[in-house]
Request: fold
Amino acid sequence: EVQLVESGGDLVQPGRSLRLSCATSGFTFDDYAMHWVRQTPGKGLEWVSGISWNSAKIGYAASVKGRFTISRDNAKNSLYLQMNSLRVEDTALYYCAKDIFSSVWTGIDYWGQGSLVTVSS
Amino acid sequence: QSALTQPASVSGSPGESITISCTGSSSDIESYNYVSWYQHHPGKAPKLMIYDVTNRPSGVSNRFSGSKAGNTAALTISGLQAEDEADYYCSSYEGSSSLVFGTGTKVTVL
Reply:
């Protein structure tokens, strides 16, 4: 059974940093691209960042580029999102998600349950 | 990286067919056959319903089908059931290692 378990979400002040982690199991982690997707309260889904199986290909949404960094550790079957200079508008439920393919963003076939990040003073 | 445009809501009676549109541009939907559709019930993780424009993952009912013409993709739900009531999102690869989601559509079964 594929499992994606996020952790690290918290209440933080604007301008501070936070690191999300995603522990995975049930599939060959280094065969697939991975993503972070967020949902703001009462709003829709927003793609945040994606990383290919070997970390050679990385992409970010314009809204987080330069502030967020995605990474993965294939030896630990884990995905990470380092979030710096957090803003109130980054408040959201952050999902860890698995792509169908290894190096092209084709679609997401498995999602975690989400980790809540709240940015507020 | 503008969100793909979907109607805010679509409704239908049980047994009917409904279609949700997803409009993008020449930079995303029109250029790539990497359009996906997701069903999202509040409080649950989204579920993949269609990928690569027309493909259904194993376990997804054949009542769900996808299509694309130009810069617009569509999800059709036939034989509408009460359990289909949810939010639906499209997504498309838009090159440069970027993915974009649609604005979301609330499906109501009357």
In short: The longest strand of chain B covers residues 86-93. The two ends of chain B are 34 Å apart (CA to CA). Residues 37 and 90 of chain B are 4 Å apart (CA to CA).
